[in-house]
Write the structure tokens for this entry.
Amino acid sequence: MKYLGLDYGSKTVGVAVTDATGTVIREIEIIRRQKEKTLRRTCARIEEIISSEKAELIVIGLPLNMDGSRGERAEKATAFGEMLARRTGLPVRFQDERLTTVEANGIMDEENIRSEKDRKSHVDSVAAAVILGDFLNSGKDRG
């Protein structure tokens, strides 16, 4: 099964995908938008990626508060996921994304991505890959 991972933010959506076996993860891109509430182009691009990659399940990072509670960002990510499920007909799962940005920054350190510009242009897609990896490692995809 092929999975699409999304790191949903107010102005960007990081995108990653697995291979057909659901084991190898690669970063795809960062979708940028001018305004938080303008999602039409973002959704259209995600639908294009789903089609070209033949994704069968969407995993969206759920930005819980450090105490595990749901705040405004988690509610927005949930609403976005519900909208994508309606638009695409694909199942959507959510993965706790606390500390994924920290992990993404560690990965970029390991990959020797040092400049601020390069880090900013990669962090969301790396975070999407981390979210997808955490989901696969959790075993949630099996049940």
